[in-house]
Amino acid sequence: MSIAIKRLSNVGRAKDYLELTKPKVVALLVLTAWVGMMLAVPGLPDLLTVLAATLGIGLLSAAAAAINHVVDQRIDAQMARTYSRPVAKGRLSSKQASSFAFSLAITGFIILYSLVNALTAWLTLASLFGYAVVYTMFLKRATPQNIVIGGLAGAMPPLLGWAAITGSVDGHALLLVMIIFTWTPPHFWALAIHRRDDYARVNMPMLPVTHGIEFTKSVICLYTALLFIVCLLPYLVGMSGAIYLLGSALLNLRFMQHAWKLKFNPDSGSAMATFKFSIVHLMVLFLLLLVDHYIKVAPIYVS
Ligand code: HEM
Ligand SMILES: CC(C)=CCC/C(C)=C/CC/C(C)=C/COP(=O)(O)OP(=O)(O)O
C-alpha cells in the first residue's frame, strides 16, 4: 500500500473512533459539567481541578457512548439514521470498539480519582453505568419510559462538575440536574416522532411507536411547560439572577412555541425543528447560567 493510501486509511480510522464517542453530545455534556464547576464557587475554581474534571468527565462520557455503539450495533445497522456507524457497518470490530471504550473509561476514572476526588470519580462511573448498561442494555428495549429514567445519567454532568470542585453533592447542583432531566423527553421524543418508522422496524418501544404520534406530541407540550417551571427554580432559590430569568423565560417560551406548532399546526419539518431547537435551548440556557453567575444583576424580589 502506498504511503498516501495508508495515511488516508489512518485518517478514516481516526474518524471512526471519533464517531464512536458521539463528540457533539459529549461536547454539550461537558459544557453542562463545566457550568456546574463554575457555579460551585463565587470566584474562579482551581484551574488544574477544572482541567482534570473536564477531561475525566469527557472521557467517561465518550466511553459510555462507545459502549452504546457496540451494544446497539444490530439495531443501528437497521435504522436509516445509524446504519453507517463504524461498528454497525463493520469498519471497526466489537473488540476494537470495546478496547477503545475500556481505555477511555480507565483513563478517565484514574484522572478523576487521582487529580479530582473519589466522589466525582465514582459518581461519573455510576453515570456511565446508568447510560451504557441500565439504559442501553435494558431500559431502551423494555419500556417507552426508557429515556425518562435513563435520562438521569445524561443529566448528571452539572452535579459531577460541582462535586469536582466542592467534594460534595449540593442542592443547587441537583436543580441543574432536574433541568436536564426535564429537558430530555421533549429533546428525544421530537426526534423519535421524525424517526418513528425506524424505531418500529427494530421493535424499540419508543413512545411514538407504543402510544402513537399524537399522544407523544401532547406529552412533549406538557414537558416543555414543566421545563419552563423547573427552569425558574435557580432564580427562585436565589442561585441565579435577572439575566438568567429573562433568558430562560424567552428560551422556554420558544421551546413551548415549537411544541405547540408540532401538536396543532405541524408541517413535515416541525419535529426536527423542535429537536434541533432543544439542543440550542440547552446550550444557551447553560451559557446564560454562566454569564449570570459572573455578571450578577440584583434579583427582582417581591417582598
Ligand atoms: C437518555 C437521554 C437522551 C437520549 C435518549 C438522547 C437521544 C438523542 C438522539 C437519538 C440523538 C440523535 C443522534 C444522531 O443523530 O446521531 C441525539 C442528539 C443529540 N443529543 Fe441527545 N439524547 C439524550 C440526552 C442528551 C443529553 C443529556 C445531552 C447533552 C446534555 C444531549 C445532547 C445531544 C446533542 C448535542 C445531539 C446532537 C448530536 C449531533 O448532531 O451529532 N442528549 N440525542
Ligand atoms: C458519564 C456520563 C455522563 C455518561 C452519559 C453519556 C451519554 C453519552 C449520554 C447521552 C445520552 C444519549 C446520546 C442517548 C442516546 O442514546 P440512544 O442509544 O438512544 O441513541 P442512538 O440511537 O443515537 O445511539
Number of helices: 14
- Shape field: globular
Radius of gyration from the CA trace? Answer: 20 Å
Largest sheet: none
Write the CATH architecture name of the largest domain: Orthogonal Bundle
Question: How many individual β-strands?
Answer: 0
Low-confidence stretches: none
Question: How many individual domains?
Answer: 2
The CATH H-level homologous superfamily of the largest domain:
UbiA prenyltransferase
Ligand inventory: protoporphyrin IX containing FE, farnesyl diphosphate
Q: Terminal Cα separation, in Å? A: 76 Å
Tell me the CATH topology of the largest domain: Tetracycline Repressor, domain 2
Level-1 CATH class name of the largest domain: Mainly Alpha
Category from helices, strands and their pairing:
mainly alpha
Can you offer a commentary on this structure?
The chain is 79% helix and 0% strand. With 303 residues, the protein is mostly helical. The protein is globular, with a radius of gyration of 20 Å. The longest helix is centred in the N-terminal third of the chain and has 25 residues. It is built from 14 helices and no strands. It has two domains: 131 residues, UbiA prenyltransferase (Tetracycline Repressor, domain 2, Orthogonal Bundle); 127 residues. The model has no long low-confidence stretch (mean pLDDT 96). The protein starts with a helix and ends in a 9-residue tail after the last helix. The site of protoporphyrin IX containing FE (HEM) has 19 residues, from helix 2, helix 7, helix 9 and helix 14.
